[in-house]
Amino acid sequence: MRQNTDPGFRFTDEEMETAKGTDLPDLLEHLGYSVRRLGGRYHTTREMDSIRIKDRRTWKRYSNGTGGDAITFLQEFCNKDFRDAVNYLLEFNGGRARDSPAPRPRQAQQTEKPAFSLPLPNQDQRRVFAYLQKRGIAPQVIRGFIDSKLLYEDALHHNCVFVGRDGSGKPVFASKRGTYDLDGPGFKGDAVGSDKSVAFRLPCDPALDWVAVFEAPIDLMSFCTLHRQVRSNAVALCGLYQGPLDTYLRENSHLKRIVLCLDADGPGREATEKFQAEYAEKGYTVSARAPAQGKDWNECLQLCGRARERRDQRQAAAR
């Protein structure tokens, strides 16, 4: 995160206390997030359900381990440097920003949402290709996603960038996945300004009346590897927020059937039951399809690959 680089500039202790003490649920609602209480001391948002806000003052994102106070939230998700973040919070709390000639009433502030932009692309896709093949994804599936401009490698960190496009084909969302995970779970995060109500999806074929729903783009790619006939009509929620599915259904009113392909862990099963009830009540035919083994479709794909390798080795030894 970017810090204040002016050695002659320093906020007072009182200013820092005001900024750090900002009510986070209040701030996030002001920024356009849908905040919901989890019970007790915790809140989260519908758009980023991996975030936990504790005691209204601190946050942590469990998908990548980041966290902190209101200042670090603006640095992480609104692309502000340290000085801009503190000034923003001083104004938000009804005070005067250090660089502002006069305070603005909090009620008069305009909701500020960060602009979306795609990370700069790398000249080749070698690391993304190698990483996804290591995860068991078929080369032709990887190439298909790249050729469709749904996937590329970013230049700065060599992450996988999964591009979500709206109904007109315009990029409005990007989910980044680190290609280095030897020491544990790799980096995960959305590009600043991403539209979570679109997330990641494949185009909709008007001749088909169903849509398959996954939690993550890699699970969708894994399913495409296991079932090669799937080339359209799929949504990856990039979490368990159902907004992307609602958007897809609204844009494609001919869809009548929903196939829930969520993870086989506790949260995935709970969401499956919840979605089945809600969408059945709306008139959709809803079914669920769980991976045959493992907690998600990528783990299932990798387990199937290992079993196939062992079978091939036994057959070769018997010859």
Task: Give the SSE layout.
Blueprint: H1 13-20, H2 24-30, E1 35-39, E2 42-45, E3 51-54, E4 58-61, E5 66-68, H3 70-77, H4 82-92, H5 126-134, H6 139-147, E6 151-153, E7 160-165, E8 171-177, E9 188-190, E10 200-201, E11 210-214, H7 217-226, E12 234-236, H8 243-251, E13 257-260, H9 266-281, E14 285-288, H10 297-318
Parallel strand pairs: 11-12, 11-13, 13-14
Antiparallel strand pairs: 1-2, 2-3, 3-4, 4-5, 6-7, 7-8, 8-9, 10-12
Helix pairs in contact: 1-4, 3-4, 7-10
Provide structural commentary.
The structure is a single chain. The chain contains 10 helices and 14 strands. By secondary structure, the chain is α+β, with helices and mostly antiparallel strands. The protein folds into 2 domains: 13-108, DNA Primase, Chain A (Alpha-Beta Complex), CATH 3.90.580; 126-307, Dna Topoisomerase Vi A Subunit, Chain: A, domain 2. Helix 1 packs across helix 4, helix 3 crosses helix 4 (82-92) and helix 7 runs parallel beside helix 10 (297-318). The longest helix has 22 residues, at 297-318. The radius of gyration is 22 Å and the shape is globular.
